[in-house]
Amino acid sequence: MADTLANLLKEERTFPPPPEFTAQANARPGVHEEAEADWKGFWMRQALERITWFTEPTEILDDSNPPFYKWFTDGELNLSYNCLDRHLESSADKVAYHWIGEPGDERTITYQDLHDDVCRFANALTELGVRKGDRVAIYLGMIPELPVAMLACARIGAVHSVVFGGFSSDALADRILDADAHVVITQDGAWRRGEVVPLKANTDVALARCPDVRHVVVVRRAGNDVTMKDGRDVWWHDVVEGQAATFEPAVLNAEDPLYILYTSGTTGKPKGIVHTQGGYLTQVMTTHSWVFDVKPDTDVYWCAADIGWVTGHSYIVYGPLANRTTSVMYEGAPNHPDFDRLWQIVEDKKVTIFYTAPTAIRAFMKWGDEYPARHDLSSLRLLGTVGEPINPEAWIWYHVNIGGERCPIVDTWWQTETGAIMITPLPGVVATKPGSATFPFPGISADVVDDDGNSVPLGGGGYLVITRPWPSMARTIYGDPQRFIDTYWSRFPGRYFPGDGAKRDEDGYFWLLGRVDDIMLVSGHNISTTEVESALVAHEAVAEAAVVGRADEVTGQAIAAFVTLRGGVVGDEALIEELREHVASVIGPIAKPKSIVFTDDLPKTRSGKIMRRLLKDISEQRKLGDVTTLANADVVEEIARKAAASDEE
Ligand code: ATP
Ligand code: MG
C-alpha cells in the first residue's frame, strides 16, 4: 500500500471522470458552458424546476442595493413542505434517515415519520408562543430531534440558530444573546465517546446570563439527571404528546430568513450569518444533486459532518431531504468503540456516497490502514471532502483506502457565508487533481486577484474573489450589516472576498491556499501555509502539520512548523533536519521551516480546523487570543512550553 501511495503522489496524476460515471451522472458535460451563457437564467431554471413554490417567482435577482442582494423576491414557498410533504405521495415509506446512536441503538425514520414528527413539534412550538420571525436556539447533539426541530421552525417561519453541541455554556450564551432567542431546545445529555456531555446542565449555566429565555424544551436521550426549572423547562415528549400530525406550512417569502448560523470562529469572533429561503434551497438542491450525483431511488448518502456546522445544515438536512434522499445520520465519535466505527456503518448500511473533512481523513491515516481494510467498502461510489485544503497525501490515501481507487473525490470549497458549495469538481464532468477543488460550480464566477484587485494570470496566486452574486449567499451578519460590508465587500469593491488565498495552475484549476491571514511573506516571497504543510504531511514520519510565519528580523517572516508524528516515530534533531531538507526538496529552499516543534496534538476548532492564529501567538510569544472555540485548549500550553524550549536552544 505504501508503494501505491508513493507512486500515485509522485506522478502528480490527473484523475479523469470514470466513463461509466459520465454516462449516468446528474450533471452532464457542457453544464458549465450552458450556465455561463446565461447565469441568471440558469439559476431561475433550477429554482423553478427543483422547488415546489406556492407562488412561482418572476423576478430573478434584485441587485438594487448591493451587497444586500435578493433572489426570487416575489416567490413564496415553505422549505419544510419541500423537504417533506411533497414526497409523501410517492415516498411516504422511503427512509429519510438511518439514524445510528453511539451506544448502538438505531432508528429508521421514513419521510412519513419525519413529516409527522415535524408537524407535532411545530404544533408544540406554536403552543409555546413561537411565531414567524422568532429566533429559536437549538443546542442538540446528532439526534433525530435536531432535524425535526429545524424543520418545525422552518414550517412555522421561525428562524433557527443551531449551536453545535460541543460548544461550552459561554459560547451558547453568546449566541442566544446575539440572536435574542427566547426559546431553547436541548437534551439531557449527549453521547460522546461513551460519556455523557451534559447539555441541559450547560444550558442552565448559559441561561443565568440570558434572562429573556422563556422556554427550554428538553429531549430525553442519555437518561442522566437534570434539573427542570418550573414554568420554564418542559420535556420534548410531554409537549408533543397528543399533538396533531398535521400543521399547515406557513407561506413564506423567498427572502424571509430561514436561519442564523455562526461561523466556526477559526479566525476570530464568530459572525451570525443569515440565510434566507428560496435562493438557499435552489443552490443547496442543485449542488447536492450534481456534486454528489445523488440518485434518490438507489443511493445511501452519508455526510458525516455535524449538523451544528453549515455542512450539516445544507448537506444533511435541507439538500438531501428536498432531494428525497436516504441518508445515514450517526450520533457519536468516529473512534468509538473502535477506530473502525465509520467503516462498520458504511458496510452495514451499504453507503454509496460519503462526505467528510480533511482533518478526519488525516486522523484515519494516523489510526492506520487496517481499520478500513477490515470492512467491505465496495458499496461506495463517490467520496467528498470539505473544511480545509486537503493535502494531496491525504487525498490519495482516501482514494486508495476508502475509495478502492474507484470512486471520484469531490473536494468542495465553500463557507458558512456561501451557504452552498461554490468551487468543486462535478464527478461525471471534471478531471480531478489531488489537492485542487478544480472549478467554480456552474453559474458561479470566481477569480484570483492581486492586492490592487487585478486578475492574476493563470499560473499565479493571490486572493480568491467571487465576482457576482449567487442564490445561497449570506444576506447579512445578524444585527450588524456594517460588519457584513466591512468583512466581505470592502477589500475589493463590488466583489465578494471570502478571506482565502488561491492560485490557479496553467489549466485554470483552483488550488485553495488557506486563509490570507495565514499566507507568509518570507524574504519577499509569498509562501502558503497549506503548501508547506502538505509537503510535511507527504513525509512518511508525519501525521499532521501546521505552519505559521513568525516575525523575523532578517527575513520578515520565518516559517515555524508544528508537527505531530505517526505512531511509533520518535522526533529528534535528526528528524528535524530531515524534514527541513524534505520541504526544501519538495518546494524549494525558501520554504524550509526555520523551526520545527514536535507535539502530540495541534490546536483545533471544534469543527476540527487547525487554529494557526494561536500558533502564531505562541511563536511570537504573545498573549493568547480568544480560545473559546477551541476543542483542545490543553494542548496549547504543551505547545507553548515546547516552543519556548526550542527557542532557547
Ligand atoms: P471563521 O470565519 O469564524 O474564522 P471558518 O472560516 O473556519 O470560521 P467555516 O465557514 O466553517 O468557518 O469555514 C469556511 C472556511 O473553511 C473557508 O473560508 C476555507 O478557509 C475553509 N475551507 C472549506 N472548504 C475548503 C476546501 N475544500 N478547500 C480549502 N479550504 C476550505
Ligand atoms: Mg471564515
Notes on the structure:
With 649 residues, the protein is α/β, with parallel strands linked by helices. The protein has a domain at 523-648: GMP Synthetase, Chain A, domain 3, CATH 3.30.300.30. 34% of the residues lie in helices and 20% in strands. The chain contains 21 helices and 30 strands. The strands form 8 sheets. It has an 8-stranded mixed beta sheet with strand order 12-11-8-6-7-14-15-23, sandwiched between helices. A hairpin with a 5-residue loop joins β24 (500-504) and β25 (510-515). α1 (2-10) crosses α16 (392-402) and α5 packs across α12 (310-322). Bound molecules: adenosine-5'-triphosphate and magnesium ion. Adenosine-5'-triphosphate (ATP) binds next to β25.
CATH architecture of the domain at 523-648: 2-Layer Sandwich
CATH class of the domain at 523-648: Alpha Beta
Summing up helix and strand content along with how strands pair, one would put the structural category as alpha/beta
- CA distance, first residue to last residue: 39 Å
Question: What form results from the Cα inertia axes?
Answer: globular
Strand content: 15-25%
CATH topology of the domain at 523-648: GMP Synthetase, Chain A, domain 3
Largest sheet: 8 strands, mixed
Bound molecules: adenosine-5'-triphosphate, magnesium ion
Low-pLDDT runs: none
The percentage helix is 25-40%
CATH homology superfamily of the domain at 523-648 = ANL, C-terminal domain
